[in-house]
């Protein structure tokens, strides 16, 4: 590991994992009980809760169809939801740069409010810090959420079994391409919008429908689908085989990714789920997902097979097999 | 209100209140149930929890006897404790600037671990974002905490009654003077150290000893004692009368504050409590406090009197009375 923080430490790939599992978990030791899942599952004397935290530094702050406020609510609500929890309470902490437009702050707060209404969560505590001009870039948000685990089963990426089906609910990479295109002035942002969305109601529907036929769910954010499925494969020591032709990717997104020299497999979404479900529940899960417009593209994109443990492979339309590696770094900062 | 964010928006005085109660609470509307207390008190089906959030942007990151990691744990743990909760779980979110020294990050994590051990809390979830060089100033932390409300009574600044005694547990302003002196190169930092400390065990002792004889507790942070007592006076619509000669202030702190042109009454501490207790419990509370080295200076500094509602006055050694105003702004960024 280099001796200074580099952008790849925040990219969600192998270097991020190294920083988290090595440096952070290593040093915190007995005071750290975090796992690699999206939320921590906590035992209280008479109930179980889930807890998760996320900071948001997206650049630009306002994009075509959303802003940092919407992402901050959707991101944390989705993290709670995919752990099987019902999101209840969020905190909102703001770091503002001196000179930031108050009207922009108000606009962000309106997005926070609107997204919180959709998610049916309450903002219960806040904090506001102001740093001097040049010491931050406009505004950074942190949302931390608590949800209740009410279901009799637990979702876990450690429970995958041969034959399980892998489902993706939306077009891969759209959020990243939208943001990157705005940042680079490529013009794709008018045709590829961010998928940023609160999906807690979708998760609730699928769990109501399929019960513990759902093994685990993850929202595809930093690191993209490639990272999510690698983490699944490692956690359950199984192989995931993806069908390249089944992956939902917009032609414009593929084209933009090509121009930018990035791989759609590792691009962040902000409203896209990856689910692993028992084979016999796959059809029911898809039906439940298709009832929601945000998940119109939901499709089975792969399955769990018996082969080398902890690996992911992709089969293309001609039957050629390649390995989907865990990316080490990505050099794409501030997508969320 | 000006149309851009200014440093005073983060100073903990009147402008901060305006931003929080006006802009933030105003816009979030029904999605916001935060109060002006240190933690939100939340009802779950079978229990009550407290939840609080804080971002930390202290400059310098390392100071004489502590660092941003220690403050981040102490600050959030203390906020939970003064709400009457037993701190249990914390999240830790990090925003790192590209180029930040990893060894400095490790040193901060060791402080986080050590403070978490003292506080007997677990870090249960984390998040790490990296922004490009120049987009943040080294490192910003956010800690969000959950604690359990196990006691049969609730602490509230709305319950103050005539005759109640106001206690302060440590020297006023030391943390701020230490940090400001380092920043300005004044040299006081060698004689005035930061008071930064985890105080949850102190709060537990006082509550065990005095029960609901304790009306409310607040840790004296941004805005200083002047802000805390004004918020108390407003919340209970009573008058607080402070005895100037009883306020614990180090001569060096007074001298440094004079040189810096700041008022000790409005300076932040990071390990100093203000308690209001029923008169008959004041002696027992002081005894419990004095058992802890961090609270050796604990003293009664004032009382609740019947006069103009919502005001604070100070009586000096010659019997002269002045008003302790709620400060509107303070121009002292990044003390925590």
From TrEMBL, chains A, B:
Boundaries of every PurM-like C-terminal domain copy: 162-313
Family matches, as SUPFAM superfamilies: PurM C-terminal domain-like (SSF56042), PurM N-terminal domain-like (SSF55326)
Family, per entry: Belongs to the HypE family.
InterPro entries recorded: HypE, PurM-like_C_dom, PurM-like_C_sf, PurM-like_N, PurM-like_N_sf
Name listed for the protein in its UniProt record: Hydrogenase expression/formation protein HypE
Domain PurM-like N-terminal: 37-148
Classification via Pfam families: AIRS (PF00586), AIRS_C (PF02769)
